[in-house]
């Protein structure tokens, strides 16, 4: 699609943009309402049922909640081609007890999850309202999906399930706030839980017995001093650890968790293998030095998260559409790298991006998270042009 074609699509959507602007307060109201429904990762059911009711009220076709808990609805196109998927994740990082009434102060709305991803879900509904199949109709179907398990240990569960079950011509993930960023490169990750087990014992009378915590510490030291490539950008972080029953006991178990991230698949595979070797070496060293006739240590490494890499080349039409649409709403596109639902379709070779859903936000993933509706409709207008142009 040429730039002139995108401009034509954008111009034709002028009435729809006016409607979005007129509905601005209603969109923010829906954002508030969905944000105040608790949806910790793995417990998104109440929020999913609320979205399902909204999809039905918008007369989307084939509305249902699938086996992964995703809420799915489709707006039919003029032809039965593969759909353009628009998705926004249901879950938040917050436990149920962290969710309460929003606080309004100095033009900002403070509430856990108000931006990530209350704004994305509100924009999902706004786009389903705008692409009504009558005044705005596309050649390809547009499938709207509210996904589960995007955050943390959710491991992109909902997106993995959906794109394993359905073909797609393209995908656009609505995640958080803003109207300039275009995520076209996916940060992949592998996350592991390492457990080291031994006999334990008294810190004095059993001293010399192999200590799982000492061994875990030795493994962690070797891990965090492992050389990492500068390109592709790669990180390795030990993020959680625990051991022991009391200050005068040798622990029977020590565990720690490791987060490895990269924009390339090779470093993920290489560092995963290095983790195996480092833990195995630390356990072997501890067993070789342990008290005679005491029981040896053992270790278990469990994969607890696996998010694939992917990249949409700058020459791809979807990225050209996204950048042009950003300029058409008066903003400058910022190409970015992140981990979002778009990781999954990107890894499958489906043209995909993630974008913000308008407005300003900050302090994401904290209880002080806030949203400011500064030209918020502009971000949804940008998304509308992207989706309609991609589905043309």
Provide a brief overview of the structure.
This protein is α+β, with helices and mostly antiparallel strands and 392 residues long. The chain contains 11 helices and 19 strands.
Question: Can you tell me about this structure?
Answer:
The protein is of the alpha+beta class and 392 residues long. It is built from eleven helices and 19 strands. The chain has helices at 3-12, 14-22, 24-35, 45-57, 118-130, 157-165, 212-224, 265-288, 317-328, 343-347, 376-390, and strands spanning 61-65, 71-75, 84-89, 103-105, 108-110, 142-147, 170-174, 181-186, 188-197, 201-202, 234-243, 249-250, 253-262, 298-307, 310-311, 334-338, 352-355, 360-362, 370-372. Strands 1, 2, 3, 6, 7, 8, 15, 16 and 17 form a nine-stranded mixed beta sheet that branches. The protein has a four-stranded antiparallel beta sheet with strand order 4-5-19-18, with no helix packed on it. A hairpin with a 7-residue loop joins strand 18 and strand 19. The longest helix is centred in the C-terminal third of the chain and has 24 residues, at 265-288. The radius of gyration is 24 Å and the shape is elongated. The protein starts with a helix and ends with a helix. The mean pLDDT is 97.
Output the radius of gyration.
24 Å
Q: Which structural class do the helices and strands define?
A: alpha+beta
Please identify which CATH superfamily of the largest domain we are dealing with: Zn peptidases
Order of helices and strands: HHHHEEEEEHEHEEEEHEEEHEEHEHEEEH
Fraction of residues in H or I helices: 25-40%
CATH architectural label of the largest domain: 3-Layer(aba) Sandwich
User: How many separate structural domains?
Assistant: 2
């Amino acid at each position: 699609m040429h730039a002139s074609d995108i401009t034509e699509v954008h111009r034709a959507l002028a009435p729809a943009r006016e409607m979005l602007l007129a509905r601005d307060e209603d969109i923010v109201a829906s954002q508030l309402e969905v944000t105040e429904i608790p949806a910790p990762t793995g417990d998104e059911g109440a929020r999913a049922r609320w979205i399902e009711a909204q999809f039905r009220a918008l007369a989307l076709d084939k509305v249902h909640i699938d086996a992964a808990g995703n809420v799915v609805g489709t707006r039919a196109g003029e032809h039965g081609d593969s759909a353009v998927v628009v998705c926004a994740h249901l879950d938040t990082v917050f436990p149920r007890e962290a969710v309460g009434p929003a606080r309004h102060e100095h033009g900002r709305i403070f509430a856990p999850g108000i931006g990530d991803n209350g704004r994305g879900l509100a924009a999902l509904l706004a786009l389903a309202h705008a692409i009504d199949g009558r005044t705005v109709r596309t050649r390809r179907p547009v499938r709207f999906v509210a996904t589960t398990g995007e955050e943390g240990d959710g491991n992109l569960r909902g997106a993995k399930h959906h794109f394993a079950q359905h073909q797609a011509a393209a995908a656009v993930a609505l995640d958080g706030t803003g109207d300039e960023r275009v995520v076209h490169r996916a940060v992949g990750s592998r996350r592991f839980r390492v457990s080291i087990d031994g006999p334990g014992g008294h810190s004095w009378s059993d001293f010399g017995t192999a200590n799982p915590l000492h061994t875990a510490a030795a493994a962690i030291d070797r891990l965090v001093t492992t050389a990492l490539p500068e390109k592709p950008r790669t990180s390795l972080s030990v993020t959680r650890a625990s051991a022991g029953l009391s200050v005068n006991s040798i622990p029977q178990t020590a565990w720690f968790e490791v987060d490895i991230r990269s924009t390339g698949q090779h470093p993920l595979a290489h560092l995963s293998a290095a983790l195996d070797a480092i833990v195995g070496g630390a356990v072997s060293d501890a067993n070789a030095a342990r008290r005679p006739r005491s029981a040896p240590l053992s270790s278990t490494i469990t994969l607890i998260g696996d998010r694939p890499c992917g990249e949409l080349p700058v020459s791809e039409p979807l990225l050209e559409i996204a950048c042009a649409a950003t300029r058409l709403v008066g903003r400058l596109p910022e190409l970015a790298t992140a981990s979002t639902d778009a990781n999954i379709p990107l890894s499958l070779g489906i043209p995909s991006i993630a974008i913000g859903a308008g407005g300003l936000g900050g302090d994401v993933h904290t209880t002080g998270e806030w949203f400011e509706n500064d030209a918020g409709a502009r971000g949804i207008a940008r998304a509308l042009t992207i989706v309609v142009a991609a589905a043309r």
